[in-house]
Amino acid sequence: MNKTxxxxxxxxxxxxxxxxxxxxxxxxxxxxRQTFAVxxxxxxxxxxxxxxxxxxxxxxxxxxxxxxxxxVQSGKSFLSLTPPLSRDEVLLILEDIDTDALSPAGxxxxxxxxxxxxxxxxxxxxxxxxxxxxxxGVETRARTNPAVLWTQNQKDSPxxxxxxxxxxxxxxxxxxxxxxxxxxxSYYDEYGPYFGTNIPFDLGHETGLLxxxxxxxxxxxxxNFEIGRDRLSYGLGRTGDLALSDTPDYYDMARFSxxxxxxxxxxxxxxxxxxxxxxxxxxxxxxxxxxxxxxLYAHRVDVRLFRRLSLGLTEGxxxxxxxxxxxxxxxxxxxxxxxxxxxxxxxxxTDLERADMVGSLFSLDxxxxxxxxxxxxxxxVMNEWATPYEREDTGTLAPNATGFLAGAEYVRDVxxxxxxxxxxxxxxxxxxxxxxxxxxxxxxxxxDSAPLRYSWIGHPEGRxxxxxxxxxxxxxxxxxxxxxxxxxxxxxxxxxxEWGMGPAYSDQRTPSGIPEHKLSLAIGATWKPLAWxxxxxxxxxxxxxxxxxxxxxxxxxxxxxMNIRFIY
Length: 568
Fold this sequence. Notes:
single chain; alpha+beta; Porin; 2 domains; two-stranded antiparallel ribbon; 15% helix
């Protein structure tokens, strides 16, 4: 008999017989502890034997771009692009890819994904694996007009120093720790100097040893669980996603998923402290001004039909000034059925007719693989929508809060280069994400920076916005190029809480007030001359009409960036 078959038979028999036999021996003869150890080995060894190290692929990981290229090129739809994705989820996606039909660029992407899923351990002993890397990066920036923000997002800037430690235990558990030394992220948000660097020369502008990723994860072929701090995104948006986006620097969260080839269920809870230092500066001091008891709860169901059409439904709730509640983790709960706003006292000290500490979230994602290499996708999100009955019969005049995103993507192999093209448009209502209290609104805060750093949980452009964007990227081996252009019409509403009821609020339309019109273009390149070295550069510029919502004011700005990263 084949040794593999014989081994499998022995293991199966061991699993069936060991519990009964070992238990009988323990009771009847009270043998020594070795009998019990054999029992545990026979029961649990088959679970771990032969498995590859457990790995989570987070938002922003280059492996996700390769995965996206493969799926779109194959003419299939994603069941769910909601990273972090576990190793088993990625393998399930790869099983659906016809490798015989892959182009040379597709094979390159496929091999890079396999490398990401099977990293060579720095140290290995039995069921324990460890990987550790030290990464250093130096970046310089320059611009011609400090009144125009940088065209590159701060997430693409390297940390001055980063220690990445990944531990894998029993091939089913992963521990990730990535402490960093970097410049304060608020440096990239504010209107500031002509020149800049990520080196914190001046004290008070550094972020010391703060991990933006640090979590414990575990899972199997049909489930995974993660708790800690990581990046998160729900959807296929190139410029951002509407419900839960990679806009914040991190999420402090616990997340559980069940997945099959055609179905996935996920539940998420994230703690989100909030202080009203900048987003509600006119709030009286005698009302609640800060809380750490603020949580986002969400669950999502993804379904894939005919391998070409995917639907994702997300429902969530932001609950302010309340401890973690088990009832919101109920997987069969429809949050609207709770009428949860009735369970919490209103935000006192304001003149509002309504000041709920609870805000709801609903989103629908659609992807349709129209043809091989061509895909359409869209998103709809809603925090609040006043029905005709509410407006006419009850007199409710709360502002609507909805948003739409639509996009198209085309990929192909161009002489061995992986080429991707996209076009995207966005619309958001003036009061999307901003609800009747700041604590019920979909705002994230990072407290380690000075001043406090705020951002939307959803799309980075936020509310009161109409945007058109397009871009392309080419990559081959150790080279990459990108071109992105966008036109944004921005209303007067920013990341500040000034919600109210009545016609003055409910009748506003996007873009409100004197809209700011911004045209931006950015060209980027990446070169990896050595396995341990990467060089990136970008040049861009913007033209803004009605700058700062002042009619007739026009501003121009050019900027450039270069960074060099070393990985040891």
